[in-house]
C-alpha cells in the first residue's frame, strides 16, 4: 500500500510540473480560467437569458466548478492508459496509479479556484454554518466517484478507441440536460426522472446544496443518492477490470 501511495504521489507531482513547464501564465491561468468562465456564464445566464434565481452567482458556482472538474478529468484521464503500454510493461506499476495521479492533479488545480470563490460564498451564504463541515464530504465523494468513472472508461478506451469521442459527445449534450445553470424546478415533472438517474447531477447536487439553499435534511438525502451512485460505479469499474485485465495487458 505504501509503495502504491508513493507511486501516486510521484506521478501527481510529475503531472503538476509537466502541466506548467513551458507555459507563459502557468498556474495563474489554471486558476483564473474557471473563474473567468464562471463570471462570463453568470452574466450571460442572469442578465441576457434572464434566469431568475436568487443569488444566482452562488447558485452557479455550486454547479459549474464541479462540472468543470468532471469534464476536464474525463478529457485528460480517458486516453492515459491507451498510450502507457511501454511504461506499464516496463515497470511494476498498477494502471490505476496513472488515473489516480491525474485525478488528483486536476483536483488540486481546481481546488484553488474553488477556494477563491468560496470566500464570498461563506460571507453571503444565509446557512447556519453546517455546510462548511459537510462540504469536504461532498467533495471527497465527487473525487472518488469521478475517479472510478474515468478508471472504467480508461479501460474501455484500450479496447474501444472511440470511447473518448463518445464520452465527449455525451458530455456536451449533458451540459444542457444537467441542472447546472438553471434550477431543477425548471424541469417538467414528467422528465425529472432523467435528472434522478443522471450521474453528473448526482455528484454535483450534494456540493451545490452545501453552497446554495443548504438544509441538513436535503443534503443527506442528496448525499445518500450520490453514495449509491458512486458505489454502483465502483462495483462496475472493479468488475470490468477483473474480467478484462488479462486482455488489457495484451492490447495496451
Shape: globular
Order of helices and strands: HHHHHHHHHH
Identify low-pLDDT runs. Answer: none
Q: What is the beta-strand fraction?
A: under 5%
Oligomer: single chain
**Rg, Cα atoms, Å:** 19 Å
- Number of DSSP helices? 10
**Fraction of residues in helix:** over 70%
Main sheet, how many strands, which sense, barrel?
none
Structure summary, number of beta strands: 0
What integer is the average pLDDT?
A: 85
As for the number of domains, it is 1
Helical/strand content category:
mainly alpha
Give the CA-CA distance, first to last residue: 24 Å
Can you tell me about this structure?
With 252 residues, this protein is an all-alpha fold. The chain has one domain. It contains ten helices and no strands. It has helices at residues 2-20, 27-48, 56-77, 85-90, 95-124, 130-159, 163-177, 192-196, 199-211, 216-251. The longest helix has 36 residues, at 216-251.
What's the structural blueprint in terms of helices and strands?
Layout: H1 2-20, H2 27-48, H3 56-77, H4 85-90, H5 95-124, H6 130-159, H7 163-177, H8 192-196, H9 199-211, H10 216-251
Give descriptors for this structure:
252 residues, mainly alpha, globular
Sum this structure up briefly.
The protein is mainly α. 79% of the residues lie in helices and 0% in strands.
Amino acid at each position: 500500500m505504501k509503495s502504491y501511495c508513493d507511486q501516486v504521489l510521484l506521478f501527481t507531482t510529475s503531472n503538476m510540473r509537466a502541466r506548467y513547464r513551458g507555459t507563459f501564465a502557468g498556474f495563474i491561468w489554471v486558476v483564473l480560467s474557471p473563474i473567468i468562465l464562471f463570471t462570463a456564464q453568470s452574466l450571460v445566464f442572469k442578465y441576457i437569458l434572464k434566469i431568475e434565481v436568487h443569488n444566482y452567482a452562488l447558485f452557479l458556482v455550486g454547479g459549474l466548478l464541479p462540472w468543470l472538474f468532471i469534464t476536464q478529468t474525463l478529457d485528460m484521464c480517458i486516453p492515459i492508459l491507451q498510450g502507457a503500454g511501454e511504461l506499464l510493461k516496463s515497470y511494476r506499476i498498477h494502471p490505476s496509479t496513472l488515473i489516480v495521479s491525474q485525478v488528483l492533479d486536476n483536483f488540486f488545480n481546481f481546488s484553488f479556484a474553488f477556494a477563491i470563490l468560496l470566500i464570498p460564498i461563506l460571507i453571503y451564504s444565509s446557512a447556519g454554518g453546517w455546510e462548511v463541515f459537510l462540504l469536504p464530504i461532498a467533495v471527497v465523494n465527487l473525487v472518488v466517484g469521478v475517479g472510478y468513472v474515468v478508471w472504467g472508461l480508461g479501460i474501455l478506451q484500450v479496447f474501444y478507441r472511440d470511447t473518448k469521442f463518445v464520452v465527449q459527445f455525451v458530455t456536451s449534450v449533458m451540459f444542457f440536460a444537467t441542472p447546472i445553470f438553471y434550477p431543477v424546478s425548471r424541469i417538467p415533472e414528467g422528465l425529472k426522472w432523467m435528472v434522478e438517474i443522471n450521474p453528473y447531477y448526482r455528484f454535483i447536487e450534494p456540493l451545490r446544496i452545501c453552497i446554495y439553499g443548504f438544509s441538513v435534511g436535503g443534503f443527506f438525502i442528496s448525499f445518500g443518492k450520490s453514495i449509491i451512485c458512486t458505489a454502483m460505479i465502483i462495483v462496475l469499474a472493479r468488475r470490468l477490470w477483473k474480467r478484462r485485465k488479462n486482455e488489457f495487458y495484451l492490447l495496451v
